[in-house]
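Researcher: Sequence of SCP domain-containing protein follows. Predict its structure.
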Amino acid sequence: MREVQRALQIFLLGAGVAVALGAKCADPKYERFSGHAMCLSAGSCTGKNLITSGLKEDHALALLHAINRFRSLVATGSVPGFSPAANMRQLVWDAELAKIAQRWSEQCIMKEDFSRTERFEVGQIMGHEWKTPITEGMNRDPFLLDFLLMVFWNAFDKSYPARHVSEFVPLEANIKLTQLIWAESAYIGCGHTIYGDNVQGHVSQIKSLFCNIGPRGNVEGESVYEEGLPACEVPSGHYEGLCSTKEIEAAYSDPCKRKNFVKAYPALCDDRLFYKWIGHGVPFPYRWCNSGLWKRRFWSAFCVLATLLFSLLVGVGFELSRQFRRQPASA
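Model: Prediction complete. Tokens:
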């Protein structure tokens, strides 16, 4: 019975997508692109239960800020096994890419979509998380950051050979990583959906994240980035080692100056917490000085020395007093 239900769901999903593709495009702007995500219906999630969808502004800022910080680590040569990058660009959030990613995310399909724009071809990274049973109101923040950690750790375990940086070689385990650090990519936009589905006879909650990146990377034979010390015409004033533009610099707003953002994502706004969050794959650039610890040590040492000095003075005074009493009285 379960197999029949599952087969029916797959049939309905396939039929829904097929009908959508065969029908008039939901957004005429993308009609000339065959099978484009924007030609599908918003929020269709055929055969499944759409719980919530979309990213709040802080979620988008967290993704963008975390990815740019990681690109900065690679560009400055801070990731063991990776040489620095001369031409890695600072990513900016792109509303069109986010809209396309969100539309695809709402189809509740666990496969990549490479719907392009009129400006450039698009690459994509995706991640999914299952939880049984369904619990309403699950916090999506840990999932978003955990997904990035999963991608980052592919760099930390050195599973992508450094020799492939100069000439991209597609390795299934690393295509998310190489797309995230592709130097010529400059724009990113993500979509997020939480929905319920029957997975192997169990009702599960599935969280999906799709991020579109353009211009697309992972082009076989091309370099992931140009190796060498950062050499940018306009260096980023916010992410060391990344290349920016005057327009990006003028429009940039630091998310870590927002109290609500710092409260929600403390690890993204404090170097010590950031390096602790990403684990031991990237060494902390300098020794963290715990001023409180050294103050306690100073006062402890001061108290010990003061006690010794006081004891010494008391002892000397006592000895002088005793010797004075022993002296005979004058005639």
